[in-house]
Amino acid sequence: MEVSQMVTQGMWERDSMLLQLPHFTKELAKRCQENPGKSIETVFDLVEMEDDERRELLQMSDSQLMDIARFCNRFPNIDLTYEVLDGDNVRAGEDVSVHVSLERDLEGRTEVGPVDAPRYPKSKEEGWWLVVGDTKTNQLLAIKRVALQRKSRVKLDFTAPAEPGKKTYTLYFMCDSYLGCDQEYSFTVDVKEAGTMEEDS
After folding, report:
1. How is this protein situated with respect to the membrane (predicted)?
2. Closest Cα partner for 7 from 181, 179, 184?
3. What's this model's pTM, rounded to 2 decimal places?
């Protein structure tokens, strides 16, 4: 997934995420990182700056600043909420369902449009993956490819482990096109022994 991001943007994961932005050089990215007051390392950091501070830091022409604003407005800003159904009362070996709601802030636009990736040889549409994993055992439990315009609801199912106890899992939301907009969340499932489910009174 991370390789897909790097190939699309034509850069390494170790490079500054700011190099995805138009007119950015390694020197400028370094200057942003060393910005007094607050280190600017992500697209979101740059967006949150005051206009005059940003202008002072970047020292670019108006048309270059417009290109940067256009990129920032198109950069995925997505709200993710999730719910684990009956997460505190799952029987060993049964299915666990995670319901995920995604909502994009389109900044007044009506559609997403192609990915901003000048180093990629052709036009590319943005794609996403939702993944549930167990970082302790390094297991992938559920994965789903998601195409997201404005809103989406996705259901991920995986099987609870055979042994009872509290289990911690990680939900990943990964982009295939941009670096720096992935999200991850931890959640716990309380697995009960098979046959000892608390009866609804």
Report:
1. Multi-pass membrane protein
2. 179
3. 0.86
